[in-house]
Amino acid sequence: MASKAGRRMLEELGCMSLYYSPFDTKLLIIQRFFRLFAYGGSTLVLVSYLSALGISKNRVGLFMTLTLAGDVIISLILTLFADALGRRAILALGAILMTGSGIAFALSGDYWVLLVAAILGVISPGGNEVGPFRAIEESTLAHLTPASNRSDVFAWYTLIGTAGTAFGIMTCGWVVHSLQVSRGFDSIDAYRVIFFAYAGLGVVKFLLACSLSKKVEAEKISPEPDPVTRPLLASPDDQEGSPKVKKPILPSISQGSRPVVINLCILFGLDAFASGLVPLSWVTYFFKQKFDIQEGKLGSLFFTTSIISAASVMVASSIAKRIGNVKTMTFTHLPSGIALALIPIPSTSALAILFLVLRASTQSMDVAPRSAFLASIILPNERTAVMGTINVVKTCSQSLGPSITGVLAEHRLFWAAFVMAGSLKAIYDLGILVVFLKKEKEMKREAEAEAEDGRTRADEGEESNHQ
Hints:
The protein is mostly helical. The protein is built from 18 helices and no strands. Helix 3 (23-52) packs parallel to helix 8 (150-181). The longest helix has 53 residues, at 414-466.
């Protein structure tokens, strides 16, 4: 009885789905951990590092905006060509760019050199995903995972990535503190050690990408020969000698998918713009400046909130199985937007931290249901291109936010960025519910009808065999 209850609990948490997943799935999730570990560490010190170099808040905001704009170009190019050129190759190339950025940040203090390295390479201003990685990985996970297990696998993919960010933030904070207190490093030298470590993690990610098997590559779809031009009495020799149709390098999005993609881009773009107003690098800087919290304690604070956020992901997977992905996306994410808007209001650190923790409690609960919903609503052969397009739109929208926050911070209006971001996120949540709830119900009915037809045909087949 106890073993059944334990197995049931493991199934609810998605542990069984992860355990029986292919080795490539586990490798992709491990890659995400190391990548977000690096992003979390660099994000904690990014604004402080640029400020220590004597760069104004306006230029810091512009720096982050241009970094995200460069990420749009890199992501668009790499995701559009990923399926044709090979997903493993693109993931490995992204890891090389990540390594190059870390080395440039560790060796140079020139604003323009750092800007070029951030634009052409991979640096995360917000501790979250940048570059082509996520779109390719999510498309690959959907390709490797049965539909019934996708919610669980995406939940663990999100959970372990968030845990990577959390451990990266805390490790970075205490390493910087230790270097400054125990070793006598000044701020700039301590921050540069973090970027050397960032480059090292890029090498680790490169090795993991090279370890993936051929199963992660997109399935090649052979186009049907045109019945108008095909000979009526074509022999096998004629067919073998007929010219092969080359697979196009650039993918196409079908006519039926375009309205869905447009709606997704509008809503996700709105949410990304709100996130861009308060990226993690600006939030950590806000707490450091307003409440004078040193890096070690700051790292521990955001480690705690990230762990809370990661734990909430598993609850979201269980909720989504009962009420559906769309309702889960809305009702779990809405409270975090409200808490975000309240963070700058208190004058004491305790109350501001309380709102930060409340935001973290539901901040990431929409991520796994959203990934599962996207995988179900998008055609399999369009997933990489569509997810890449959506990520590009999100990054474009997000790139507008940091520079606005920089201007607000320069004019002592830092609090307005939090209020604006929380309000826009609430609008996004309600928009998702209004636009896609009906669509999800229709898809569920169609899936149930197909399953019923399948059972009926199976029963008829068994009856004919008995006769």
